[in-house]
Design a protein that fits this description.
28% of the residues lie in helices and 30% in strands. β8 and β9 form a beta hairpin. The chain contains 9 helices and 15 strands. The two termini are 42 Å apart. Pfam families: ABC_tran. One of its GO terms (molecular function) is ATP binding.
Amino acid sequence: MTAALEATGLGRRYGKHWALKDCTLHLPAGRIAALVGPNGAGKSTLLHLAVGLLGPSSGTVSVFGATPGDPKVRGDVGFVAQDTPLYPDFSATELATLGTKLNRRFDRALMLERLNGLNVAVDRPVPALSGGQRAQVALALALAKRPRLLLLDEPVASLDPLARREFLQALMGGVADEGTTILLSSHLLGDLERVCDYLVLLQAGRVQVLGGVDELVAQHRLLTGPLWTRDAGSINGVAAVVRQSHTERQTTLLVRTDDSAPAPGWPDPQWTVSDVSLEDIILAYLADAGAGTLPGPRNLHRVGGSA
């Protein structure tokens, strides 16, 4: 099956600075993917390359097998930028009319019905709406395009918790019946854990972790036990130590296992084993740029980390 988004050795340079470099990823169609990383990791640059607003300085990027911006796929991609830009003199109704004229599959009725259901005044100019309502207008505009791939760049960053919840509910409701692939950039890890089933973690312009959320969570564990250092040798069933911390008597390790379903009693009685959340995993990898995985569930890139 053709990937919704694929990049190989992708790079984008601004002068002497590489915002994205040697970025390789494969996003299967039908996934709701979280795009996370520290500020400056290249998230917005990746999204702008995927939608065709920027061209690569190196490598390749494709959307459903075609170059972004190609007329064959241009209508299949929806994009909501970080500041949810909308024409300030337009109302939602007027934006819906514009969308109809610019997009062959645009569903004007769907957009207005969704906004009316959220009690957004569709005849008021955009600047007269609250920040949350403007974000809902931008999302409704993108969804009404009926995209196969929807790219969202920090769409809820400025919203209060209730507005964020309403936005995410609208997002999930809008794609449930369409099979739309979503790539959602956000720093709000709790929100991402609730709605996403795939993870793309960028660090310093490269993909550090990539894979299905359930698979990644199943392959990571928290071990607590006696003092341990790498010099003590490997731990049975541990493929990589992602993060470690120590007290005078105890070591805590976040590890990636050899098996997503370790046998009872693993790794041995001296270690207490606990499950971890997606947020735990993301924070552990972000804390150490050297800890990471290449695309694929079990290919270790480099491991490390200390605290």
